[in-house]
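Format notes (please read before filing issues)

Several people have asked whether sequences and structure tokens are stored in separate files. They are not. Every record keeps both together, in the order shown below: the sequence lines, then the token lines. Line labels are part of the format and must not be stripped during preprocessing.
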Amino acid sequence: MMSLPPTRPAAPPSGPAAAWPTPALHAALHAGGRIAGWLERHAAPLLDLAVRLAMAPIFFRSGLQKIGDWPSTVFLFQEEYRVPVLPADIAALLATATELTMPVLLVLGLATRLAALPLLAMAMVIQFVLGAQNPAFNNPQHYFWMLLLASLVVRGGGRLSLDHWIHRKGGGL
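Then the structure lines:
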């Protein structure tokens, strides 16, 4: 008589009869989804506002400093902030105008994505162009600024912004 090979244990049930996910896991996933929804509705708008309010004064103060002593600003753009392609006086004017206008738009949450773009570009120029020329401009804080400004470009101003209000009223920015 021939012997039969040993049998393997039965596979766990599959298909609709299988209880996957388990009721406990299902409840945990559902609770996690509710928490995530609450955070998206209530915490995300506050975070978007906080990012806008954190970034605006950094650039606005810099603009006030530049306009407060214009001859020194132009001199700095001639000697220290040498930006390729642009003449020093034009670069100084553009940087100052950007630093004085875009932060106001950020605070209001008006044209947020558009306002964050030139500030992101400025942070990148400071870090990668000026930082390559002079190690004093190579500052890890600039990466943090770039990350926050990029989040505004991607997400917009959030629910606590004029952008959101205009969009809801049918204007759409």
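For reference, the curators noted about this record: The chain is about 70% helix and 0% strand. The chain has a mean pLDDT of 88.
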